Amino acid sequence: IHESDSNQRCTGSSAITTPMYKRQKKLCFFLLFLSLQEDDMDLEALVNDMNSSFESLYTSCSVQTESTPLLHNGQLPRHAAYHTHAQPTSPHQRLHRSQPMHILAVRRLQEEEQQYRTSSLPAIPNPFPELCSPASSPTLSSGSLPQCQPSGKYIIKVFSEDGMGKAVEIPADMTARDLCQFLVYKNHCVDDNSWALVEHHPALGLERCLEDHELVVQVQASMTSESKFIFRKNYAKYEFFKNPLNFFPEQMVAFCQETSGTIPPSQLLQNFLNSRSCPEIQGYLYVKEMGRKSWKKLYVFLRRSGLYFSTKGTSKEPRHLQLLADLEDSNVFTVITGRKLHNAPNDFEFCIKPNKVRNEVKELRMLCAEDEQSRTCWMTAFRLFKYGILLYQNYKIPQQRKTLLSHFSAPVRSVSENSLVAMDFSGRIGRVIDNPMEAQSAAMEEGHAWRKRSQRMNILGSPSPLHPSSLSGVIHRTQLWFHSRISREESHKMIHQQGRVDGMFLLRDSQSNPKAFVLTLCHHQKIKHFQILPCEEDGQMFLSLDDGATKFTDLIQLVEFYVLNRGVLPCKLKHPCTTVAL
User: Fold this and answer.
1) Quick one: angle between helices 372-387 and 389-406, nearest 10?
2) pLDDT for 155-187, tens place per residue?
3) Residue 192: which domain range?
4) Distance between CA atoms of 307 and 321, rounded to whole angstroms?
5) pTM above 0.70, yes or no
6) Which of 139, 323, 382, 469 is the most buried (most CB within 10 A)?
7) CB-based burial label for 475 (10 Å; 0-12, 13-18, 19+)
8) Residue whose C-alpha is closest to residue 385's, from 279, 253, 246
């Protein structure tokens, strides 16, 4: 080897490509191959001996000159190569050869194997972002994983509207719908497919309803320590599938203006759900400038690609459009802090929050609509453009489940139950009621008979059925739609949080009249209040909503009547505004 390479002039990076180095490299891999064939041979000891022999070989061949720095790939930097050419060499000195990198095969194989293991692991969302590094990363890196295998269970805390919280252990793949179903089952709630999980940010004054297909653990990873989940009703989650024309006014939908006449509701939804179509929502919005308190009124377009505003009036030309927000990595939120915090022009605020934003108010895109209907239109279209057909599938799943259960709705009756028949004992001799409609009517009359009996007891015992000792005076307090002594503003807030759909209602005590009650009803996204006053007839006290034209013995009878009949109300009572304690 010394004789074959002694006459070669090698400088700079060319010293690495000499035939001597190539032969030594082949010898290295050949020895490694032989060592792998021998089961009893110590591979690490062999490689160490080989490395030491290389060191002694190159120490004897190289000149004790200034060492040249090497890069990790075994090549010299440019400044080092020029410096090597400039150095004079004497005939008594041997050539300066760069030292090859010591390749510890065993250690390298172990490091590559460990690196492959960690890189193949997926990024696991951090359920406790407040315990992260100062960078506040919401995702646990693969290098920070513990040595033990993760269990796949996470602890989250869900709050009710009364502020009480409950810790729940869930798997990593649990969706928002599954968690709502679990809470409904655990708390014995009525499963009407209107429960929702709300992402609440008190520091930012924002909240939104999670979509049914979203993973709860992933959403929690992007939340701060002050943020929380709230379990509540939301009747408006899929209301736009039932009444799309109420959510999308013709003047705000672009393809409605280009056609003559009114588009059928089915075609309207198909245009939104079809990814090949290009509908857009257009109209004026108040936009808050980033980092400032001032607002500007701009003509805005919402498309599948994002939210844009026109720099020249209502022009749609691409050169006049500028991007306001992206739909892919953002979510739309309702502003719950009111107009004073952001100095908004009115109360119809909403916000587009990027997923990477945690507590930075300056990064939020604050928007303000002209009325409640236009705000609902903008927010609903944002959800449709982002999720598309997924929303329709989420809407259809409960209906398909209800259809499957309807075939098994009739319970299996026992022998003793099959022997029971409906009887009429109103005459001298009891008779069997064969007509099913007559039997059902008799059952309803028997169910209301206790009210008549309690009414007679009130006449004999207490002067008024509204007395606290009367059963009919307090039985309504056990109903989910009764909310006792809440204020007018609190009733507005509760109905607004649970959807603002037609027929939402609640009953409460009147603040002006201690003997009266108030029916709060939502119709066409407007909240109206109707006072229920006591009236007396033949020494008997009743409750009436229309100045005595229709009288009821208690509030339960009143609610049951207006659920079936519109009467003097703008619409029937349909969705009770309820709360649940976890």
Assistant:
1) 90
2) 999 999 888 899 999 999 999 999 999 999 998
3) 153-233
4) 10
5) no
6) 382
7) middle
8) 279
